[in-house]
Amino acid sequence: MAASWDRRPPAALRKAREAALRTQVVDAVAPFSPFWRARLKALGRPVASVASLAGLAGLPAVGERDVCPDGDPTGAAGLVLQAGESGYALHAEGPRLRKALSRRLTAPGSYRAIVEDDTRPTSFVWAGLGLRFPVASTRSDLDVIARAGARLWQVLGLTRADVVVSGLPTLPTALVQALSLGALGAGSPLLAPGPRVQAVADALALVPATVLVVPAAGGDALVRALADAPLSSLTTVLVAGAPYDDEREELRAALDERGLAQVAVLAVHVPDGHRLAWGECRASGGATGLHTYPDLEVADVVDAETGETASGSGELVLTQLGLRGTALLRWRTGDLVTGVETAPCPSCGRTVPRVTGTRRAALVPDVALRSGTVPVDLRAVASAVGGRSDVTDWRVVLGRSRRDDADELVVHVVPVDDDAAAEVAVGVARDVRVACGLLPTQVVVAEAADLPGGDGLTRRLLA
User: Fold this and answer.
1) Amino acid 368: pLDDT
2) What is the mean pLDDT of each run of 10 residues along the chain (463 residues)?
3) How far is CA 89 from each of CA 23, 100, 424, rounded to the nearest angstrom?
4) Closest CA to 407 of 376, 362, 451
């Protein structure tokens, strides 16, 4: 009997991933994604050259600004696969195509229905960090998300007997959709009254909830606000979005104050642009990272400043396998991670890659400027400054103004020619504005020895 999805030996796992990746690239993304068709042509990369794990690793990672360089989110439509009935016949997997053709003979119109299940977007969720754009799912994609959700329940140690109450906003996000379809796939009841405290309290009064879903930012405040709500039946609190250490500690403290020290706190997270929710295993109490689905995605790491493949810590990039609406290859998620571990989980034994040390959206933080709060894509800033031939070194510093406590984005540069310092400063400011739609608060021309140091997101991106 074949091993289950989370217990496959490395050789079997690699074989399955290679096959899934080849199908995704050759039969779906390359022929039907306008963005990727044009990009592969511009790179001079034949389709076959990226249809393997080794070839994929050499493909430059892309993000929001690559797909929407002018900041117009309509550019994200180029990621959606656009296949008609004739294209489906040319590229569909053999078993799917044979099923569709046989059904066509016995039931007129059924061929089109099968094609549309696999190719026509039927639902959308919102994504984006620096800009907001819809991510499309086909009917078959929703099945994949539901099946992945049933797996998520296994990782979290939940069963169909668990009753879930969600305090998340009801906006159509990938995480809200993944939890809803996951509960459906696992057979668990889920009530989603929205984020209002009274609505959550009313839901908790109606059912004996064993699982409460709270946002990573403000989850502790929600628990404290539910002072009179019945929480004694809780066994698990799911933190939506990879929580920072202080957020997890505050939530743990809030539960302890309510006498709920026995309740497990586990994170669930959907990286930006993706649609599958990852979770921390109950056996580790969240200590071994987010467990992924190796037959449905490839998780990798790139240098956050350059976008080049890196080992160890860096920016998380994702390639989707088996999803046919919006299709992502080497997608830059904006999450910083300490690594992607491939050894079996030391707590639960699952042989799936685990993403560790996740800092969600760290590379596209919300910055409270004097003109208002805006998301700033530090990857775009790094690309704009680091790509200039007249700059030998640089730093980008996010900090607080001593004058009015507003956030500041200050760029420090070391010019090649000191005599051209003024021109370099003006050019850097202009390029940063073009890259991320925001002028830096200040451009400081400095000597190499005077560049600021210290801990930061990366060596040159400091906070």
Assistant:
1) 85
2) 81 93 92 93 95 95 91 91 62 58 59 61 92 92 96 97 96 95 95 96 96 97 94 96 95 95 97 97 95 96 92 94 94 96 96 96 88 88 92 92 84 92 94 89 92 88 87
3) 14, 9, 55
4) 376
d(CA 321, CA 19): 10
Contact 341, 354 (CB under 8 A): yes
With left for phi above 0 and alpha for psi between -120 and 50, is residue 312 left, alpha or beta?
left
Tell me, rounded to whole angstroms, the distance of Cα 440 from its chain centroid. Answer: 27
User: Which DSSP category does 400 fall into?
Assistant: E
| Contact between 383 and 430 (Cβ < 8 Å) | no
Which 3 state secondary structure label does DSSP give 18?
A: helix
> Using CB atoms within 10 A of its CB, is residue 278 exposed (0-12), middle (13-18) or buried (19+)?
buried
Q: Count CB-CB contacts under 10 A for residue 240.
A: 25
Separation CA 240–CA 165 (nearest Å): 13
Amino acid type, 275: R
Q: Tokens for 311?
A: 């080992």
Decide if 242 contacts 296 (C-beta within 8 A).
no
Domains of the chain: 10-120 (no CATH), 134-299+337-356 (3.40.50.12780), 366-462 (3.30.300.30)
Q: Report how far residue 395's alpha carbon sits from residue 427's, in angstroms, rounded to the nearest whole number.
A: 16
Q: Which residues have C-beta within 8 Å of that of residue 261, sequence separation ≥ 6?
A: 255
Q: Are 272 and 361 in contact (CB under 8 A)?
A: yes
